[in-house]
């Protein structure tokens, strides 16, 4: 059984809904896209948060803030002390401290950064597109090499 939403919860949902309505068009978001990006199974979860059916816990606030490119305090100002405390803590260990990471170019690092931000379904599509594109270039290169060999053989 779900707990009854407090006045604070309802106000947070209202703030989130206002931010959502303002930003969704600019960011090209639908509830379905948002659910996919934030890791929810259905857009219903997003709808429940936006409509004050489900209270916004800290995890949801952070996910929505990141998605909508606002500070979490804009959604739940009463948690500003907590967020301030977390921001002042030591930085988390970098996920890119492995030895090989330093050998990547800035272009490779940017590609990885952007790829990691995509929803899983888009990652799969992108990898398939890259596979097809590289296969096409390989075929083209092979055709050019065959033509070059023919050209050099007929010149002799």
Brief sketch in words of this structure:
It is built from 8 helices and no strands. The protein is mainly alpha-helical and about 160 residues long. The N and C termini lie far apart (about 85 Å).
Strand content: under 5%
Give the distance, in angstroms, between the N- and C-terminal Cα atoms: 86 Å
CATH architecture label of the largest domain: Orthogonal Bundle
Q: Radius of gyration from the CA trace?
A: 24 Å
Question: How many discrete domains?
Answer: 2
H/E series, N to C?
HHHHHHHH
Spans of at least 5 consecutive residues whose pLDDT stays below 50 are none
CA-based shape: elongated
Count of runs of 4 or more consecutive helical residues: 8
Tell me the CATH superfamily of the largest domain.
Answer: lambda repressor-like DNA-binding domains
């Amino acid at each position: 059984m779900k707990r009854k939403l407090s006045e604070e919860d309802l106000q947070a949902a209202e703030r989130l809904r206002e931010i959502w309505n303002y930003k969704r068009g600019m960011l090209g978001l639908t509830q379905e896209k948002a659910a996919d990006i934030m890791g929810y199974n259905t857009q219903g979860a997003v709808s429940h948060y936006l409509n004050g059916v489900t209270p916004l816990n800290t995890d949801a606030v952070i996910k929505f803030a990141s998605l909508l490119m606002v500070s979490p305090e804009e959604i739940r100002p009463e948690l500003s002390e907590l967020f301030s405390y977390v921001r002042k803590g030591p930085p988390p260990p970098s996920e890119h401290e492995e030895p090989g990471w330093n050998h990547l170019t800035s272009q490779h690092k940017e590609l990885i950064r952007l790829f990691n931000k995509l929803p899983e379904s888009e990652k799969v599509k992108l990898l398939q597109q890259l596979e097809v594109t590289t296969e096409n270039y390989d075929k083209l290169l092979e055709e050019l090499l065959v033509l070059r060999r023919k050209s050099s053989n007929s010149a002799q």
